[in-house]
Amino acid sequence: MKKILLTLVFALVFGNALTAEAQNTQQISVRVNKQKKVSRSKLMIRFVSVEDSRCPQDVECIWAGNAKVMIKVTNRKGASKTFELNTSLEPKAVTFDGYEIKLRDVTPYPRSNIRIDKNGYVATFSVRKL
Length: 130
Known about the structure:
four-stranded antiparallel β-sheet
């Protein structure tokens, strides 16, 4: 009986902590050369550019490759900073004005028989209040 009660207490404590963190984290997707405001914050993220050297899905490569995105983040006071984030290399996340911004995905994923228009890329970020 003690084990069950102890398990329930741990589940409640840690479950609430995970829920609180999930509520503080937002996902935002931005198309290249566009910007979006992060809801529940005063941050604006502009997706400036992308360098995509990821191995195409339909090809076997020695290395998976990397997609590097450049973003410009602006806070409510107008202060801004430019960052580079990566899918496979570091840095994958940065902090700015009390928020952690993490690159989650870059789409579309390359294929050997399709040329991706540079304006067709979309980057997905998670933004978490620290």
